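Quick question, first post here. What does this chain look like in 3D?
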Amino acid sequence: MPKAGLEQTIIDALEPLADKRGIDVVDVEVVGASKAPCVRVRIDHADEDAPTITLDEVTAETEWISAAIDELDPIPSSFTLEVSSPGMARPLRKPRDFARFAGQTVAVGLGPGEGRRRYTGVLLGIDGEAGCETVALEVDGERVELPFDSIKKCTIKPDFSA
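> Answer (accepted):
Ran it through. C-alpha cells below.
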C-alpha cells in the first residue's frame, strides 16, 4: 500500500535513518494549503514488543526528522512539521502492520474502482507473497478478502466502550 508522490518520497528518506535509531515510520501525511502545508510524521518503536512511544521520545526524535526533511527539501515553500505517536486510530501501512494488529477492528478505504469502497470489520490478517498479498477481514459475520495493493487507507478503530 505505497503512498503517493511527496508522502512516499519523505517516507523513503526517513525510513533508513529511522531503522538505525530503532524507530518505525508509521505514516506520513502532507495536508493543508499548498503554500504552507503541514507534514505529519507518525512514529513508534520498531520493536513491536516495546511499549508505545512516549512524548519525551517523540520530542527527542523530532530533531533528526526535521533535519532529514530539510535536507530533502521536498516542499519549496515553508511548512509545519508535526511529529507524533500513531495514536489510538493508528494507520496500518505495511504488510507486517496487518499481521501485527490482527484481531483489531479496522476501517478500510479502497482506491478508485467499482463496487464497495469502505469496510469496517475485524482484521483477520494478511496472506500471500510480496506483491500479491491479500488482507482478510470479518465484516458483518462474513469473511472479506481485499488485495493489499487496492487499500488506500486503513486505520484501527478505537474501542471507547469501556
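The radius of gyration is 17 Å.
Residues 55-72 form the longest helix (18 residues).
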